[in-house]
Design brief:
Rossmann fold; single chain; 382 residues; alpha/beta; 37% helix; 5-stranded mixed β-sheet; globular; 15 strands
């Protein structure tokens, strides 16, 4: 290995392991987590690999401690990550909000399983989609990527680290049990060809009077790290540019608007989708994650039968690519939304769509077959 990192080349690898190797390439050198199916392989692999690259792994007492540990490590300047599944993701929500408020880059990988509660720990689900957006209280804007292959789990983990560093906030990778546990081809490109983003550090020396760690003149302020000599105040309270809490509406307005605007203003830059035969499609399947794989097969068969079907795959679900969905809906007669839940992403789609939107809800525990989605396409095409 080069510097302990996986060498460029072609591999046949499990999704969870690909995620871990991608994190190392992105610069992750600290992982804190608690065992939970079906994400366990990520933690297990990181416990083995991090010491090989000069990093550190800690198994925490629970998921609450895990998210706080990676937030702390990141404030000390170390790229950090945790991995979990539904129940653990629920426990992390308050402190994901804390990470948003103090603008701390880190990555949370959620390998979704069937739910709610303990649910079906070993089988697939897509029930955490809305929680990733609205799980913590208050106002902030989430960034969440949804992979549909081993290769994309690798690629999007790196993008998640880059987005976390660029926008100074926790970023979520919403995988699922099937993607996490499947084995598939992986191409690791030459490391010098992989885009790696690192947080901006202050361009003024420590000790400068009136230093502002959350300086409003920046859309995303440079991040002063613990131990660098800067005077830093970090609090989950609504705060001013210096990080100190002031309970005025003026300060609250600046603070909260800043948290949401840094993402909303860059939403079109963050959005990522995949289009398939949409040019003349009047029946469009909008899908994401593992569900996009049978959807793709169903659309291909429908096209062979003369049905004008197409597919829009959401790779970034948050911020929601509303303008992309709206434009697709202006041409379509019907949008179908297959999900392994009782209807979650269908709601933001309905909010912006200009045509009929029909959900294809599927109880957790199994992936829809192509025939299920194909039958729905045939039904609305009549």
């Amino acid at each position: 290995m080069t510097d302990g990192l996986i060498p460029p080349g072609k591999y046949f690898m499990q999704g969870n392991i690909a995620c871990a190797e991608a994190a190392l390439i992105a610069g992750c050198r600290f992982f804190a987590g608690y065992p939970i199916t079906p994400s366990n392989e990520i933690a297990q692999w990181m416990s083995y690999r991090l010491p090989q690259v000069g990093g550190h792994f800690i198994q925490m007492e629970d998921e609450i401690a895990s998210i706080m540990a990676i937030i702390g490590a990141s404030n000390a300047g170390v790229k950090s990550m945790t991995a979990t599944s539904g129940p653990g993701f629920s426990l992390m929500q308050e402190n994901i909000g804390f990470g948003m408020m103090i603008e701390t880059p880190c990555v949370i990988v959620n390998v979704q399983r069937g739910g709610p509660s303990t649910g079906i720990p070993t089988l697939v689900g897509q029930g955490d989609m809305m929680q990733a957006r609205w799980g913590s209280h208050g106002d902030y804007e989430a960034i969440a990527y949804v992979p549909n292959s081993v290769q994309e789990f690798f690629d999007l983990t790196i993008k998640a680290f880059n987005a976390a560093e660029e926008y100074r906030q926790p970023v979520i990778v919403l995988a699922d049990q099937t993607i996490g546990h499947m084995y598939g081809p992986l191409v690791v490109p030459p490391h010098e060809e992989i885009k790696i983003v690192n947080r901006k550090l202050p361009n003024v020396p420590p000790g400068v009077p009136d230093f502002k760690p959350f300086d409003a003149k920046y859309e995303v302020a440079p991040m002063a790290l613990a131990g660098m000599g800067y005077r830093i105040h970090v609090t989950g309270l609504t705060h001013d540019e210096k990080g100190y809490p002031y309970y005025t509406h003026e300060v609250s307005t600046w603070c909260v608007k800043h948290l949401v605007s840094k993402i909303r203003n860059n939403a079109e830059k963050i959005w990522e989708v995949e289009r398939f035969t949409l040019d003349d499609a009047d029946i469009v399947v909008i899908t994401y994650g593992i569900t996009s794989r049978p959807a793709y097969q169903a659309v291909k068969v429908a096209r062979s039968e003369g049905i004008k079907a197409g597919m829009l795959r959401l790779i970034t679900v948050w911020p929601f690519p509303e303008e992309v969905v709206r434009k697709v809906s202006e041409q379509a007669k019907v949008i179908l939304v297959p999900e392994i839940n009782m209807g979650q992403m269908i709601h933001p789609i309905r909010e912006v769509a200009e045509c009929l939107v029909i959900g294809l809800s599927w109880a957790p525990g199994a992936v829809q077959t192509p025939d299920v989605i194909l039958d729905a396409i045939r039904s609305v095409s009549r």
